[in-house]
Amino acid sequence: MVQNKDLLNPEMNEVVKEVREMRYKISEKCGHDLNRLLAYYQKVEKEMRKSGKYKFADSEPPAQKPVSTKSERGEAAD
Fold it and tell me: Which sign does the torsion angle of CA 39, 43, 49, 55 carry?
């Protein structure tokens, strides 16, 4: 986690500025369209995984919620 004092560091500000500029340029290439942007990042991820040069932390699927035996009104379910 980045601490507030790190944000005051001029070098950190330059890095943040550069990252934001790059993200904006990528978004601009995708017409600022969220679906195209998502597809772009998914393509890049696939290429990076295929290269074997990078490690990825695969997320676990979300745990399923247990099925309630009561209805929302507090009555017993069938």
Answer: negative
